[in-house]
Design brief:
The chain has about 160 residues and is mostly helical. It contains 7 helices and 4 strands; from the N terminus they run H-H-H-H-E-E-H-H-H-E-E. It has a single domain, classed as Arc Repressor Mutant, subunit A. About 25% of the residues are buried.
Length: about 160
């Protein structure tokens, strides 16, 4: 098998693993991996603003608003005015949201992070450079993408 075929097979395996994980987390918890990441960020401090989530996930605030709207409709998060600044809206988890985090399968990106962290620095640098090169080759360097392994909607950056 030549290098092109090996590369395409490796890419397909990554996409497939991401799809399978997305399906698994949706079936077990009813949220997408991206929505799950929003819940994780909110849980870190007990609340978060849309701006904080946007910066952490490296997506637009409009994308965060859509994600949070769905989480609120599903009853796993709520919006509340800040007690310190009435202009600020905080996103908080409901009991159902905390249960989603508690009961969800081990996120794919956490498995990746554990294995990536175990690599030597030079290996990490090579892998990052290679992945960035692949993103460029696929004309995906300008995509609005968070550090979440998900096959969901990706929007061009604003």
């Amino acid at each position: 098998m030549d290098r092109i075929d090996c590369s395409l097979i490796a890419l397909r395996r990554i996409v497939r693993a991401t799809e399978l994980f997305g399906r698994e987390i949706r079936q077990s918890s009813g949220v997408t991996p991206t929505q799950f990441r929003v819940l994780q960020i909110v849980a870190e401090h007990g609340y978060a603003t849309a701006k904080t989530i946007s910066l952490r996930m490296r997506v637009s605030q409009g994308t965060v608003t859509s994600l949070v709207d769905k989480l609120v409709r599903d009853g796993v998060a709520v919006r509340e005015k800040s007690t310190q600044d009435r202009r600020q809206i905080n996103i908080l988890l409901t009991d159902a949201g905390r249960a989603v985090l508690r009961d969800a399968p081990d996120p794919l990106q956490q498995r990746f992070v554990r294995k990536f962290a175990a690599m030597e620095d030079w290996e990490q640098a090579m892998l990052v450079a290679s992945l960035e090169r692949v993103a460029t080759m696929l004309d995906a360097e300008d995509m609005d993408a968070s550090p979440v392994l998900d096959t969901g909607e990706i929007r061009p950056t604003e």
